[in-house]
Each structure stands twice: as C-alpha cells, then as structure tokens.
Design goal:
mainly beta; 5-stranded mixed sheet
C-alpha cells in the first residue's frame, strides 16, 4: 500500500491535489523478492519462473483503471503511466507553493488529480485502487487530504509604559515530518515592535515566536506581523496595536537629612532622544533645588546634582522630571526623610502624678503677616493647644504686654505614671519651618489620700465609695486590693474592673469588723493600672457597741416554760470579765435568768435545752418547773463571769407565764473599761442590751384546734372555719385580732409562735403558701365584724374563710397563729 498526504487550501480557487504515481511498482518488486527468499513455494520452478517474469519489461507506457472510496473526492477513471516521467523535486524551504490547476485541466505526467468538494476544514481520507489493463498489476494508494485555511488574521493589543518592554509568545506547531521554516515580516511605520525574521520548528515540535513591544514615545503604535510557511502556503497575519502609557520612574531616590539642614545627591540622567539635547528640569517639592536645565550628549548619561533643604521634619514624596524639547521626558520618584530639626532650647519640668504644671514658651513672628503654627506634642503627658496664632511683626499682642509679633505657647505637663522621660514639642509652619523644644520630664508618685474614718457597730458594716476616672481615649484595666499590713476588717470590691474611654467606675471599700480592737484599725487601699497609674488611700475604722438592742421573742403556753439562751461572744482580743443583769417590768417574775445554766467557752456548742425535759407543748415537766421560782431570786442580782479570748458567754432566759399576757424585760451585758482597754484607761463601760418580749399562748384542746380540708388536685374547696379562743375572758370590742399562716414543722408541734418558717421563707422547690391556701377573717355568727369579738363570755370565736386549691397531689400541715395585740382582762397573748 502506498501512502500520501496533502493539503488543500479551503479559500483557494481550485480544491485539487495531484498524486504522483511512479511507473515502477516498488511495492510489488519487494513482494517478489520476499517470496523468492523466504516462501516455501519458491522451490517450485514453475512458481519461481512466474515470479521472475517482468511483464513491464521493454514497456514504456501502461494504462490503469482508477477507482476510489470517498464520495467528496473525484478523479479520472483511467491514467497512463510513462516510464519517462520524473518525480517532482521537493520544494525549497523558502519557495512558494504552486497550487494545482482546475479539475478539468490536464494533470502533469504520471499525476492523478484529485478534486475535493470540502464541507469545511478537516481531514478527508480516500483509498485509490489502480488496475492495469492486462490485469497483471494492481496498486492501492491511501491518500489523506487536509483541508485548511491558508490565511488567518488576528488582532493583538499591547499596553506598556513608555520605554518598557512587553513580550508576546505566538506558538508555532509543526505536525509534519520535516523541519518547518516560518518567515516573519513586520510591516508598518512603527519601530516599537521587533521579532526574528525566521524561525525553524523541528518535526512534531512546538516553539514560540517571541514578539517584543518597546515604545519609545507615548501614544498608539500600529504594525502588521505576517507569519508564513512557504512549504504549505499558510499565512497568519496579526494586526498589532500598542498603547504606550506615561513612562515609569527611572529609579527611586531617597534622601535622608535633618530638618533645617541641607543634603545633596548626584543622579545619572539617561538620554532618551538618541541625540544631543537639553532637558528642562522640574520638581514638585519646595525643599528640592538644582539647575533648571541639563545638557545631554548624544550617547551618554549626564550627572545632575540636586539639593534637599527641608524646613520641617517628616516624610516628603515627590518627583523630579527631565523634559526634552520634543515632549519626551524621563523622571525619578523622590523620597525625603527629614528628621527633627536641631532643638531651639531645653526645658526641665517636674510634677506629681495626676497634677498639672504649666509650661510657657515665648514665640516671635519675624514676618509682616500673621502666622499659624501647628503644635505637636511628643508625649501623652503634654497637653495644650494644637495651633498657635502669631500676630504680624508690626502688631502688638492683645493686652499690650510683650513685644510686637510675640505670643506665648502655654501647655501643661500632666503625668499619670511616675518616672522620667524625654520628649519634644515641635512648632511647625509652612513659612518658617520647624522649631523643636526638648522637654526633660520627671514625675513622682502622689502621696496617699486619707479618707474619712468609718465607725460601725460590732457585727455590722459600712462602705465608702471611690470614683476612679479614666482620662484615656481607650478602655483601661484597674486592679483593686488591700495592701500588706492592712486590717482584715477592710475589703475592696470589685477587685478587678475595666473603665471605658473617658469614663469612670466606682470602687467600694467596706469595713466589717468582727472584734473590738483597743484602737482604730487602719488599711491602705491600692488601685493600680498600667495605663493610668496608681492610687493609694489610707483609711481608719473603729468599732463600737451596737447602739440598738437586739430583739428576743419568746412564746410559751400558760403554766408552762419556754427557754432561750442568749449567746454573747467575746469581741475583744483579750480575756474579759462580763457582767450581766436583767431589768424591766417582768424581770425576775415572768422572765427569769437561770444562773446555774450559764456556760463557759468549753460548752460553746451545747444546746440550751439539752439538760431539760419538755412535753409536746414545750412545757417543762416534773420538779424542774417548780425549782425555777427559787432560782429566779438568785438570778436577779448582777453576776460577773470571765470570758476567754474567742469564748462565748451563754445566758439562759426562762419565760414562765401564768396568764395570757405580753411580758417585757431587758438583759444587759457590760464590760468594764479597765478590762476592755489598756491599763489605766477610764470611761463608761461597754454595754450590750437585749430586749426580751414574751407572748403567752392559750392551750387549745387537740380536737378543737385541728382542722382538715380535702379536695382533688387542680381543683379547690372553700369552707368556713370557726376557731374558739380558749382562756379569753375580756376583750375590747374595738380590738382587732391578727393572724398569720406558717408552714408547720415536720417534727412534734412546738410552743414557739416563731419556730415554724413563714410564708416568705419557702424552701426551694416548694410553692408559696399564698399560691394554694388563703385564710381570711369573715363576720362571726353573732354578727361581729371580721377579726373582732364583741362578747367573749358568750362566744369567744373567730370565723375564717379557708380557700384550699392544691396544684398537685399533696398532704401537708400549716399552723394558724392568732394574736391579741393589747391587754384587757387577761392581757395580750396568742392561740395556735
């Protein structure tokens, strides 16, 4: 099989291709030699003779019939091959391809012209079979025709600053079996585009064609690039458009110097015109000076000297331009780093933290026009105006004091932290420049602030509030504590706080003494912050005996005894002798001291009822109740008991009512001054007073004092309850009885009216009594008003309405306590 490939231009006038067919059948000759050398049939003489026979010998022309397999390709039905026809020579690399003629034109000798009807670009394969007229020679030719566009056009856009280079790579692909030569041509007036004239691409490789754009002037640059392949006739035409922007800086020049001093720098200026010329020099910084023009030679760069003389410190940015007569220019970016000017003078200042010291600087205006100087402070501790206005040289300041054109800059040094620092105050104006004053600052810690003394009763506390300001424009953290050596009776709260910008927070100092000291207690409160400094406060506190007596309530059923032990802990840091006495209208009679039960510190944890036997109503049993009368006489006299440091004096009190009444007495515990203070001190004794109030209760029969109410959960029942007040003989018609409902204790009923928890002290997890039980007085059966009894001898009864509404299944007990506030007949008292 013979193979052949060809290219048919899609845009060409004739879509034809000539396939050269040699006269000799080389493939057949190779097959004959292979048969004779290797095939077993070659041993047969007859077969071997047929193979050696050459029917084309002595023939100069043979005719073949032609057939092909592609319906889009047509060719002649027959062809004559001549032995004298020569194969066409391969074209030179730079030779142009000659397109075949039309399908109707005669083809060259031994060439079969194929006419293609392309449907578009692509590959069109065809198999051609040639059969000789005598039937002795058959040939098969596989042809692959590639239909492609031979001329393609593209647009390329380039953008670059003037005198800068931009490159574009154009891929060149060679799918052939021989080296492909690509010829490049740049057409147009612009010289900004450059590239190689020829490129060679090896077989099966891809190489880039590098196109460079380097404009020397601003504006648009146009050109045309043509890449052609002479062997195939393909051409790619590129329309080139280049846009040259403003040139970039040749380099960045940095000049470092001090304000009000000069610094110079030499720079090399390139010649961008290519010939001798003169540059015009321009700069947009006032502090830069140099020659206005510079002469350029035709091929060398010239040196240019510029001088920087900034009048104020800071960072200055600008540009230096060199412009040619034709409009082209080259420029450099400038950066002037100016440090502070030499100091005009030095000022030493000292102050305590959180105080302010004024500093005054005289300033004179040497110009005949008013000036404004910007003031810059180098430290947060310096506070003052940001602008200083100076009158003209010929103008006197307001008030007539001082010289003409003179003004005073007044600012303050207000430190927050102790220590030393150095900084500067800088005055700047566009006309005069910069003036620097060096400031040596020194601050010392402020002395502690003494707060007013605190005097409190023992067991209570008192606080003093401190307000801490934050002068900073950001939040600060402050810690508060009591310094070492402070009395433990003092505390500070909160111990850590954050104060918002320009805000303030409150800190509370609390004095809560637990002991009475010989003298005042003291403490140092320290508030510390890393940003706003430290505050120290000195404070003293003294403790005194409680000024208000402590209230002791006792309840007992008539003809029974209730006992209460009053505990007095020793509040002094030494051993004392305490005296106690009982006074009042009921002292020694109904309310009594039990002297044999006074206990010392060794019995601090003993219960006051541990050595007595009581019945279920709180009444003392047996001979113990009878012996109280004999002990009362001895207890009426004052007694003295030594109490050790940390010890507790326990004074047992007995309430023995015989009628409905309200009894009152006062217990006094005093400590002599010689015992409480240092030796030799005199003064009034310290006295603790306890007001004792005893309320007697009438004994209620069990069957008449117990009431039961029952209903389903989440429902309610409302009933009347009549309570008979036994033992009530007389009462004023105007007297109003009071009542209270409390939760009954789970243990045995007690005689104390205050023993059970009230409605306000509901255990956690339980519902308040008022949510499910309401008891209110209503008029009696005899028409008496609610909570009143008009005829106690006839019907000492109070009537209540009970509303029971349990929210869930429950079973509990409560106690109804009824009190008769005042006397009358049997005096005051109560019923449970």
């Amino acid at each position: 099989v013979m193979e052949c490939r060809g290219v048919v231009p899609l845009e060409g006038p004739n879509h034809t291709f000539d396939v050269f067919l040699p006269f000799s059948n080389n493939q057949l000759d190779v097959a004959r030699r292979t048969f004779l050398d290797k095939h077993p049939g070659a041993k047969d003489r007859a077969q071997a003779a047929l193979m050696r026979a050459d029917h084309m010998k002595n023939q100069t022309e043979l005719e073949y019939t032609v057939s092909q397999t592609n319906g889009l390709i047509s060719c002649a039905s027959s062809i004559k091959l001549s032995s004298n026809a020569l194969a066409p020579a391969p074209p030179a690399p730079d030779a142009k391809v000659v397109a075949p003629g039309r399908a109707t034109d005669p083809a060259p000798p031994n060439c079969l012209r194929l006419a293609l009807k392309p449907m578009g670009t692509g590959i069109y394969p065809v198999r051609i079979m040639l059969t000789s007229m005598d039937g002795l020679d058959t040939r098969v030719v596989d042809v692959e025709l590639t239909c492609q566009i031979m001329l393609q056009q593209f647009d390329l856009l380039f953008e670059a600053p003037t005198r800068q280079t931009v490159t574009q790579e154009i891929p060149l692909l060679n799918t052939g079996e021989q080296t492909m030569t690509v010829v490049a041509s740049l057409l147009g007036p612009s010289k900004a585009f450059t590239g190689t004239k020829e490129a060679y691409v090896p077989p099966g490789a891809t190489l880039p064609y590098i196109l460079t754009f380097k404009p020397l002037t601003q504006g648009e640059h146009k050109c045309t690039l043509e890449l052609s392949i002479p062997t195939t006739g393909e051409r790619n035409v590129y329309t080139l458009l280049g846009k040259a922007a403003d040139p970039v800086a040749e380099s960045h020049i940095v000049i470092e110097c001090q304000a009000r001093k000069t610094a110079s720098r030499n720079i090399a200026v390139p010649n961008i015109t290519g010939s001798s010329t003169t540059y015009e020099v321009m700069c947009d910084l006032d502090c830069i000076s140099g020659p206005e023009t510079v002469n350029m030679s035709s091929s060398q760069a010239s040196s240019y000297k510029l001088v920087a003389a900034p009048v104020r410190s800071g960072l200055l940015l600008g540009s230096l331009n060199f412009k040619a007569p034709d409009g082209q220019y080259v420029w450099f970016s400038l950066e002037v780093r100016a440090s502070e000017a030499p100091e005009v003078g030095a000022i030493d200042v000292e102050a305590e933290v959180r105080t302010a010291v004024m500093i005054s600087i005289p300033v004179i205006n040497p110009l005949d026009v008013p000036l404004k100087l910007a003031v810059r402070y180098g430290h947060d501790a310096l506070v003052g105006p940001n602008v200083l206005e100076l009158p003209a040289k010929s103008t006197a300041p307001e008030g007539g004091s001082g010289g003409k054109g003179k003004a005073e800059l007044d600012f303050y040094y207000a430190p927050l932290l102790p220590g030393s620092a150095q900084t500067s105050v800088v005055l700047t104006s566009k006309e005069l420049g910069e003036f620097v004053y060096h400031i040596n600052m020194s601050s010392k810690a402020a002395p502690p602030i003494t707060l007013g003394p605190l005097s409190v009763d023992l067991g209570s506390k008192k606080s003093k509030v401190l307000e801490i300001p934050n002068p900073m424009p950001f939040p600060v953290h402050v810690s508060a504590l009591c310094a070492d050596g402070s009395s433990p009776s003092f505390s500070v709260s909160p111990s850590s706080l954050t104060i918002q910008a320009h805000g303030q927070q409150k800190v509370s100092v609390t004095y809560a003494p637990l002991l009475i000291q010989e003298g005042p207690e003291s403490a140092t409160i320290t508030l510390r912050s890393n940003d706003i400094g430290q505050w120290d406060y000195n404070i003293e506190g003294s403790t005194r005996v409680p000024s208000r007596p402590e209230q002791i309530n006792m309840n007992a059923i008539i003809q029974s005894t209730a006992q209460e032990t009053i505990r007095w802990p020793n509040p002094f840091p030494r051993r004392v002798v305490a005296s106690f006495s009982l006074s009042g209208p009921s002292a020694g009679n109904v309310i009594q001291i039990l002297p044999q039960m006074v206990s010392l510190p060794s019995e601090r944890g003993t219960s006051s009822r541990s050595s007595r036997k009581w019945d279920s109503f709180g009444r003392m049993q047996g001979s113990q109740a009878a012996s109280l009368a004999a002990a009362a006489a001895a207890a009426a006299a004052s007694s003295e008991v030594p109490v050790d440091v940390g010890g507790v004096l326990q004074v047992p009190i007995a309430f023995v009512p015989d009628t409905l009444q309200v009894a009152e007495a006062q217990l006094s515990i005093s400590v002599a001054p010689a015992t409480a203070g240092p030796e030799g001190t005199q003064g009034e004794p310290m006295v603790w007073r306890y007001d004792i109030k005893g309320i007697s209760e009438a004994e209620q029969p069990q069957q008449s004092s117990t009431f039961k109410f029952k209903c389903k959960a989440r429902s309610q029942v409302e009933e009347r309850m009549e309570v008979v007040l036994s033992g009530l003989h007389s009462v004023s018609p105007e007297e109003v009885f009071t009542h209270e409902v409390v939760q009954a204790p789970p243990s045995t009923p007690t005689s104390s009216l205050t023993a059970a928890p009230s409605a306000d002290s509901t255990p956690r997890g339980q519902l308040p009594l008022s949510d499910w039980l309401q008891i209110r007085p209503v008029p009696g059966p005899d028409g008496s008003p609610p909570a009143r009894i008009t005829n106690p001898s006839h019907s000492p009864t109070l009537v209540f309405s009970v509303l029971f509404a349990p929210p869930r299944a429950m079973s509990t007990s409560v106690q109804l306590i009824i009190c008769k506030p005042s006397g009358g007949g049997g005096g005051g008292g109560g019923w449970r």
